[in-house]
Specification:
Blueprint lengths: L1 H7 L2 H18 L2 H8 L4 H27 L7 H14 L8 H11 L5 H29 L6 H26 L8 H19 L1 H28 L6 H15 L10 H10 L6 H26 L3 H12 L1
Length: 320
């Protein structure tokens, strides 16, 4: 059993899961219809979407640098930029979108003395990102209430019940001592969660600003995807996008595939169908967005190869 669990954590297993899901999608749905939806996006438009993807993530660099610093650690921007986009690039090869968080935190830790602050700040950043997506889902659900199916209402209810449980557990872990009979492995997880909650409570302003930036970033991605989806033939209200897209992204965080590839497309098709969207249009759009993610991540990685530190030093010398 342990050997099987270890196998499921390998890149080969997760890549196999992604390929299997994509293969099943292409077997089940008519390929010409998927291609018809995808080909509506011109090359010029696709390139613009890639650049927009990278620009939104540049705001993410500022956000991540802000929260890991918390007023104490001044991480150089060029270093934060490199770590962030290395992590984004790592998402292409690691299980779920959370894998890249470990890459960027690991890189930053090697350049600073405040190692724990980098780790805790990165955990808070991801936690607030998820909170931002839940807020966007609630926002969309309020304004798209009439269009929501019973299936969506059940999903939203489950999401917010889960959120309530997380909040209650988080408060409990922060203020109640850990029982002695809890296994050591779980004690470490609880202690890490406690540290995150304590840091959020000690730095409410930093947490609030980071949450607002997360809402801005995730909301920008929703709007960007709504434009892309409309080109691919998905005709739903913008409020529906605020429900469906964050739900699909949260689904892609489940560590069963490579960077959420395959899982994201299935989630999009499942969540869009009750709104009258064809499976082929949803999957065609999903594949185009997947191509944007891959190209944008590669472009971001290419930008990290530019010696920004030297360029800033030259610019300062010229200015002086």
């Amino acid at each position: 059993m342990k050997r099987f669990i270890g196998l499921t954590r390998t890149i080969y297993f997760r890549a196999g899961v992604s390929l299997l899901i994509i293969g099943l999608i292409l077997t089940w749905l008519p390929l010409p219809e998927i291609w018809e939806a995808a080909r509506r996006v011109s090359l010029q438009a696709w390139i613009l979407f890639v650049f927009a993807f990278v620009l939104i993530h540049v705001i993410g660099v500022f956000k991540w640098r802000f929260i890991v610093g918390m007023g104490k650690l001044k991480l150089p921007f060029y270093l934060a930029f490199r770590c962030y986009f290395y992590g984004l690039f790592g998402n292409l090869f690691l299980p779920s979108v959370i894998g890249g968080d470990l890459v960027r935190a690991g890189m930053a830790v090697g350049h600073v003395e405040e190692k724990e602050q980098i780790i805790i700040g990165s955990l808070i950043d991801r936690f607030l990102d998820v909170c931002a997506m839940l807020i966007l889902i609630l926002f969309g659900a309020v304004f798209a209430a009439q269009a929501l199916s019973d299936q969506h209402r059940k999903i939203l209810l489950a999401v917010f019940v889960l959120l309530s449980i997380v909040v209650v557990v988080g408060i409990t872990l922060t203020f109640i001592p850990i029982p002695g009979n809890v296994p050591e492995k779980f004690q470490k997880i609880i202690l890490r969660a406690r540290l995150v909650m304590i840091h959020v409570l000690k730095n409410p302003v930093y947490a609030l600003v980071t949450l607002l930036l997360s809402i801005l970033i995730q909301g920008s991605f929703v709007v960007l995807n709504a434009f892309l989806g409309s080109i691919c033939g998905i005709e739903v209200s913008i409020f529906t996008w605020f429900v469906v897209w964050p739900l699909a992204k949260i689904s892609a965080m489940v560590p069963v595939s490579l960077g959420g590839i395959g899982v994201r497309e299935v989630a999009l098709a499942a969540f869009f169908t009750p709104f009258g969207v064809l499976y082929s249009n949803a999957v065609g759009y999903g594949f185009v967005w997947e191509a944007v993610i891959i190209a944008g991540s590669l472009l971001g990685f290419a930008l990290t190869l530019i010696p920004w530190k030297n360029l800033f030093s030259i610019n300062k010398a010229v200015t002086n």
